[in-house]
């Protein structure tokens, strides 16, 4: 809970308030995704302060994933703290996490972001601020590297993705904890943050400390910096691919010549974006390369059947269709 005395402006409080200030909109209402942990709690307190100064509305959305005993009590506690911070409205949303085979972390994330969409629609807010830190970014990049996910994962999280805002991506986790200490806020500790069954926990508790020990301090900062650089490159390649795609794709068809003229990074994106935009199917890298082989390694292949999509090359044209 917050101290009855106004906290003094310590370096941690100043840094997080400044970070929040840079991403707040000019008007309207924003929500803070609040779990009660140190990261989101520091974000909520800083947002309440900065929004009041800027004449903005600031509320909170608390998601109860129903994955742990007592989760409703944790959500209720977070809601009470949000009200004490002056946040309004305070929305508590209970969700059901569907088991779709993508893993517990991804399944919970899907449910959580769907709830954020509902909260935005219900409240009329223009954005949801999330408390992802530089350490979260480093973990994301390392996990993407381990999975061989390519630049889509290595680029990490963006500070702004539609209505989702992440002002703390340049802030270390130790700073959010210090903010809570300085502000007299009692942060909740999620026991799942120490459960080694989760890959992210193993990265946080074992892998990153090992890298820091063996390669020297600053690994987390370096990984986050790498993500920022890759995001710039990836955004530029995405834009080039979209321009070329819209120029050459028509009625589910594109010529092999148009694809062959592009560098591999742009060509693969054109295939992936085209299939996603026009057929509603997302291709992984292996599937994308299989389609690209109809251009780069053409030797008379027949119909290429992939999950949810059918591709055939006829008279120098790649024809994409969705099976009945």
Automatic annotation (TrEMBL):
It catalyses: cytidine(34) in tRNA(Ile2) + L-lysine + ATP = lysidine(34) in tRNA(Ile2) + AMP + diphosphate + H(+). One of its GO terms (molecular function) is ATP binding. ATP binds at residues 35-40. GO terms for cellular component: cytoplasm. Residues 30-205 form the tRNA(Ile)-lysidine/2-thiocytidine synthase N-terminal domain. Its EC number is 6.3.4.19. One of its GO terms (biological process) is tRNA modification. Pfam families: ATP_bind_3. It is found in: Cytoplasm. The keyword ATP-binding applies. Keywords: ATP-binding, Cytoplasm, Ligase, Nucleotide-binding, tRNA processing. InterPro entries: Rossmann-like_a/b/a_fold (IPR014729), TilS/TtcA_N (IPR011063), tRNA_Ile_lys_synt (IPR012094), tRNA_Ile_lys_synt_N (IPR012795). Ligates lysine onto the cytidine present at position 34 of the AUA codon-specific tRNA(Ile) that contains the anticodon CAU, in an ATP-dependent manner. Cytidine is converted to lysidine, thus changing the amino acid specificity of the tRNA from methionine to isoleucine. Belongs to the tRNA(Ile)-lysidine synthase family. The N-terminal region contains the highly conserved SGGXDS motif, predicted to be a P-loop motif involved in ATP binding. This is tRNA(Ile)-lysidine synthase. The gene is tilS.
């Amino acid at each position: 809970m917050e101290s009855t005395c106004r906290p003094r402006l310590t370096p941690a409080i100043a840094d997080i308030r400044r970070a929040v200030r840079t991403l707040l909109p000019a008007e309207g209402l924003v929500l803070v995704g609040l779990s009660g942990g140190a990261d989101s709690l520091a974000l909520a307190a800083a947002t309440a302060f900065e929004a009041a100064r800027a004449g903005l509305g600031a509320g909170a959305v608390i998601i109860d994933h129903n994955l742990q005993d007592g989760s409703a009590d944790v959500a209720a506690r977070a809601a009470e703290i949000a009200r004490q911070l002056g946040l309004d409205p305070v929305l508590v949303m209970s969700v059901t996490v569907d088991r779709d085979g993508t893993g517990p972390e991804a399944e919970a994330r899907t449910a959580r972001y769907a709830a954020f969409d509902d909260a935005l629609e219900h409240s009329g807010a223009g954005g949801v601020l999330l408390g992802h830190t530089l350490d979260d970014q480093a973990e994301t990049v390392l996990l993407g590297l381990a999975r061989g996910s390519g630049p889509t994962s290595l680029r990490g999280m963006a500070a702004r993705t539609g209505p989702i805002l992440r002002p703390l991506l340049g802030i270390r986790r130790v700073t959010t904890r210090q903010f809570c200490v300085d502000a007299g806020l009692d942060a909740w500790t999620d026991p799942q943050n120490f459960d080694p069954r989760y890959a992210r926990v193993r990265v946080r508790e074992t892998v990153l400390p090992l890298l820091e020990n063996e390669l020297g301090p600053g690994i987390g900062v370096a990984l986050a910096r790498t993500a920022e650089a890759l995001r710039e490159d990836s955004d530029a390649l995405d834009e080039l691919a979209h321009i070329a795609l819209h120029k050459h794709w028509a009625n589910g068809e594109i010529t092999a010549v148009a694809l062959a003229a592009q560098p591999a990074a742009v060509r693969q994106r054109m295939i992936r974006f085209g299939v996603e935009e026009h057929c509603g199917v997302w291709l992984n890298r292996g599937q994308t390369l299989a389609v690209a082989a109809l251009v780069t390694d053409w030797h008379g292949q027949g119909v290429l059947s992939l999950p949810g999509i059918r591709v055939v090359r006829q008279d120098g044209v790649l024809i994409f269709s969705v099976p009945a």
